[in-house]
Amino acid sequence: MSNVFSFTGTVGRDAEVRYTPAGLAVLSVTVANNVGFGDKQQTLWVRVALFGKRAEGSLQNYLKKGQQVFVSGELTQNEYKANDGTTKTSLELNANIIDLIGKRNDSGQAQQSYQPSSGGQARSSAQQSVSHDNFDMPYDDDIPF
Q: pTM for the complete prediction?
């Protein structure tokens, strides 16, 4: 890979999976990344594509508008002519990594975490039981180092 671009951002619209004429799956999603601060803050929109078997999985179900993601891959900049005749540029990333981070930003919906259970269903974090047996031990004040 000639360049690597990694960033965190927010999904701008739900991901789509399409297939090339040769049958290769392509997952496409647009991710917003805010740079700068105050009145100099800008939003960079990056078109992200994931190819092959990884694009065919269930990731599309989790890449919904408002989801926070970490993305890493090879960045390219493309120029094109807009309908009004002006030349525009777009940032496109051929992704190697797409990780879900944080939670969705829309109206406080519960975050679903993908945890295969014995029935093969995803459970929300509120439905998962956590054992606190190891946390009931008193603290030892003697530091071993």
A: 0.65
